[in-house]
Write a structure and sequence with these properties.
Layout (H helix, E strand, L loop, with lengths): L6 H25 L7 H26 L1
Length: 65
Amino acid sequence: MFEKLDATELQRREDEIFSKFMERKWALGAVGVPPTHDKLFCLLKWQMDEIEAAKAKLEEATAAA
């Protein structure tokens, strides 16, 4: 999903998703709902994991070049 993006775009998207992720986590905590029971929270968590994987792959490609 994020493999074809450059480092700048990956960081921009990570920052954006992280903000939404934390807002959702705090909102769920305020109402007493476990974050793992919320589909949007899980989607944001998955996107964060995908971005981390894409960043690692980009770093490997950069180091190999």
